[in-house]
Amino acid sequence: KAGVTQTPRYLIKTRGQQVTLSCSPISGHRSVSWYQQTPGQGLQFLFEYFSETQRNKGNFPGRFSGRQFSNSRSEMNVSTLELGDSALYLCASSSYFSGGAAEQFFGPGTRLTVL
Amino acid sequence: TQLLEQSPQFLSIQEGENLTVYCNSSSVFSSLQWYRQEPGEGPVLLVTVVTGGEVKKLKRLTFQFGDARKDSSLHITAAQPGDTGLYLCAGDESSGDKLTFGTGTRLAVRP
Questions:
Q1: How many CB pairs below 8 A link A and B?
Q2: Rounded mean pLDDT of chain A?
Q3: What is the DSSP secondary structure assignment for residue B9, as one 8-state letter?
């Protein structure tokens, strides 16, 4: 089974621009979550989509948005980029462990640098 | 907002030594997972524990979930340079897909 794929792997943008990141989950997984990872804040939850609906949302401003398509692929968008948005953006797709616990499988991430 | 504190934050040891990483919270989790992340890559799931007091062994790695399901530990026996990486614990509050990640422990194993 192919793993989670994310594109692009690296991205350089300037302040004020917008960016769209893409994630393809493991085949058969319907839940996709997005995380932001920075050295100072660690791994922080952005949002989670299941069957094209946002099911959970973290504490990020409205500049961060996402969507999921019928084939479970997901995109996240960041508008009006700020320097502090520089981070590794990780996508994870989920399968459910017995007992309901979600096991998340991560992609390699997209490294976004905002200049 | 839940917080998962990991200790120590950094650990540099010699090959062959043993080590323990701790993950603590004041909140109860329905399950807890451990991941290892290498530079430039996403975290890789090592184990999931769901029952209070549960102990799981994965070769030289031993994971324990606290009786009250608020804390966990990862013990590595005879560490090897290949164990080097960032170790993250992550708690699932309600059997959903919103994981709260710990602060991370960066391990370096010197040959």
A1: 79
A2: 91
A3: S
